[in-house]
Amino acid sequence: MSSYPPPSIAFDPTMITTALELPGYRIVCNLGVVRGIVVRSRSIFGTFGAGLQTILGGNITLLSQLCEKTRQDAFAMMAQHAAEHGANAVISFRYDANELMQGVTEVLAYGTAVIVERTSQG
């Protein structure tokens, strides 16, 4: 299975979390909601290839790869949006996906952009 290269992220991706806080850091400023939205459709070739894979059963790798690439792109766009707001971290990160029309899907990556600073140790 081929994989896509990771997208360029505006800041350290370990500073993006689904949690409400980052251990070892304190939030000094809440900058609000940030998001990255990607809308993708399957090509006729991808649809045909995925259809063939469904006959064989198992993981539909063509669609899995498309989904993974779409999520990576939405994640990178959200991180870029956060950096543009001056954030150095994102908390409460989530993904959402919606089918806009047959074969066209929106993937939304969103969270709360924050500025954090390391807490003093000891």
UniProtKB/TrEMBL annotation:
Family annotation (InterPro entries): UPF0145_dom_sf (IPR035439), UPF0145_YbjQ-like (IPR002765)
Q: Which Pfam families match?
A: YbjQ_1
Q: Which SUPFAM superfamilies does the record match to this protein?
A: YbjQ-like (SSF117782)
Tell me which family the UniProt entry assigns to this protein. Answer: Belongs to the UPF0145 family.
Q: What is this protein called?
A: UPF0145 protein GCM10011585_10450
Q: What is the lineage of its organism?
A: Bacteria, Pseudomonadati, Acidobacteriota, Terriglobia, Terriglobales
